[in-house]
Every structure is written in C-alpha cells, then in structure tokens.
Amino acid sequence: MTTRFDAPPAWLARASAALLILLVTVQCASSLTPYQLGQRDGCDTGYSDAGRPGYEAVFARNESLFSSNEDYKRGWIEGEKACYATEMNFPTMTNVVR
C-alpha cells in the first residue's frame, strides 16, 4: 500500500522559503568579524558622504562597538576612507543619456 502526500499549500512553501532566507542572512551577518562589520558600516557611510546614489543620508556605525572594540573602529575608519575615495575618484553615473 502506498501513501499519497499532497503538496503543501503555497503559503506554507513561501513562508518556509522566507524563513530559510532569514536564517541564512542572520548566519552570514553573525559570522563577520568585528573588523568586517566596521568596514561594511564605514563603507556605507563613505559612499553616503561622497554622494553615491542610493546611499543618501546613510550613517551606519555601531557606537558601542566603535568605542569599545578596536577592530570594529579600525574597520569602520578604513572602510569609510576607502569607499569615500572610490566614489570620489570613480563616481557612479546615473541618468546617462545614450
């Protein structure tokens, strides 16, 4: 005798996929070192400071880590400088007419 299983409802499949994506995202973020977190936050801020489209009014910095963790602080400072310089030297072009 065989047992037949019906496919799960569509909402359950979508909810399961969303949960999986959330878990993977959280795992990836938690696996970053303090330096990498700081570099990511500093880079977003540097792009904003340089006027990169899509980064308007971004100031990303974990103040408690910045004041207590030297690796985060160094990553933030280096990331902000590097991404600011990149955007200023090679600006992102938008609204280009062809």
Number of helical segments with 4 or more residues? 4
SSE string, helices as H and strands as E = HHHH
Low-pLDDT regions: none
- What is the alpha-carbon Rg in Å? 21 Å
Mean pLDDT: 83
Tell the overall outline.
elongated
Biggest sheet features: none
Task: Determine the N-to-C terminus distance.
Answer: 67 Å
Please tally the β strands and state the result. 0
**Beta-strand content estimate:** under 5%
Question: How helix-rich are the residues, as a percent range?
Answer: 55-70%
Structural class: mainly alpha
Fold and architecture overview:
The model has no long low-confidence stretch (mean pLDDT 83). This protein has four helices and no strands. It has a domain at 31-98. The longest helix has 21 residues, at 10-30. The chain has 98 residues and is an all-alpha fold.
